[in-house]
Fold:
Amino acid sequence: FGTMMAMAMAKPTKAAKTKGGKAAGKEGARVLMKRLAEGAREAKRQAKEATTRNVPEEEELQWTREAAWLKSQLDSEEDVESIVEVGRMLANAVVVSEPEGTEDMQEEVAQESTTIEWPNPGEVFWTRPPRTRKPKRGKGIPPKDGSPLHIVHIAAEMAPLAKVGGLGDVVTGLAKACEVRGHQAEVVLPYYECIKEDQVEDLRHVMDYDVPKGTMWDGQMRVEGLKTSLYEGIVEGVKVLFLRPDWNCTNLFRGQQIYGGSYNELEAYLYFCRASLEMLKVTGRQPDILHLHEWQCAAAAMLYWEVYHLEGLWKARVMLTIHNLANSGDCRPEEMIAMGLDAERFRTIDKALDERTIGHNPERLSLLKGGIVYSSAVTTVSPTYRRESLESGAAGWLQSSLLKHQDKYHGLLNGIDNVVWDPADDPFIPVNYTPTSAVEAKAACKKYVQRGLGLAEDPDRPLVCCITRLVPQKGIHLIRHAIWRTIEQGGQFVLLGSGHADGDFRAMAEGELKNHSHAKLLVMYSEQLSHYLYAASDCFLVPSMFEPCGLTQMVAMKYGSLPIVRRTGGLADTVIDVDQDPKNGNGYVFDGADEGSLDQALDRALNGYRNQRDTWSEKVKQVMDINNSWDNSAQSYIGLYRSLLT
Structure:
């Protein structure tokens, strides 16, 4: 039935072919309405049969909804020309052969071509479903590993409910991938006041317990118990252990955002490290691996070996992952007492002392350095970023500590979540697609975004998108230049992002680029809108000054968008220039940090889209087939976990 509908739309009648413009659209719409009438009768018949054949309730409900939707189309001729047009656009997507599940995929893509609800210019379209949603297909499940491990992640972020950057995606993606492979993964997370509890399944209070917390009183350190509540819930299929301090006694983790509340963040995360280990102790957990993330949780490595390993947590080995070396967790000795210990035991050059401050008053400590020293293994998020941190100054003053411990220092590339980021089954995009149907389906997604954002609806203009935090690390001077260069070269540019350096972009959005036909600056962030932009874009810009790993370039490729990147960190590990290696190339790469270097890559991409469409279409299919999933990355992490236990 779905194929019949798509063919009706994609092949207008003879009358429609001979008439021009609006008349042809209306004629095609009448043909479609006739087919819809036939389909409505068939759907109703199927729904009636469903009640007598004792089929599952979900199937009956699906047929009933299909009939209701078809009836609504019969009752209205609103935007029928767009329905017909997108049907034609998807004709090839319907009839192509797929290697597996051909008929089912063809039917689903065909049906989706009729369910698009086109946006009005200026509408906040990403806050509603773009079409009628079908049930999810089953995913391929990787084989289970033997000898399952118990892995506890201690982290400040977890997507989607406590996400600021890529850290949250990594924690969720790795934990899920390990769970799927048969391991027991748990995530310990602060109970931020701003967490949306409806994003947590089966949230429940487990117990209260006291956490030793130090304070200064009359020049002396005093340690008292801070009542802490343990909650459990499920997020993205992973058990999460939320720790909430007594808010009658402290304001830690209170506020309407993950970072930047009214509390002292250093104090908060030192307390959180102690609370996490105390929770493991009082609940009797004996994990195989304690996986700590970033400077916020690095102190847990120090506490584990100095205190808790001696108090009964005997089994675990500790891994620290450095996601970004820009923050080393500097603190004064008197601040470190928040975790209930005197800082003097860590105040040596071979432990946590910041050697830059030797002889200063006061000397300072570094939580990240302490984590490096005390952890059984240290990882960072790409092989190139590891090399840069050891050889090129990316680690700053911590380079000497990493060199000293380089035998336990590993670069493991991050992955992306192939359930969240899957164009074949993404609920946020107008048309789902696979590599074989990508070219036609992406054209429909591009038209949808162009219309919704008020851009000129021109399929021949390459659409460049950039989704990023607007901070200096991300190359904001190059992003600013790329906007104008893309327009000048006949393309379109969409920016989605915000950050502490977004002032210029806000001014441009409200000034010279307001209501522009070929550029839209959205100085904000929306996870839903990001899905639309990945699906709609032809090229994806990531001009970072440094990038430990980067996930956006991998997601872009998954959606058939060719990345334009600066060669650094994980960008260098994942993107190969198409002109330097035509066979394996999957994007466009430049080396410099200047506008001219960016131009040579950007111009090549725009020209490739306009002048080499057949080659471009093949590259779209090729990049979608690259496996950057967490399943691959998780295997590397699990291998390293096991090596620590032998």
User: Anything to note?
Assistant: The CA atoms of residues 5 and 195 lie 44 Å apart.
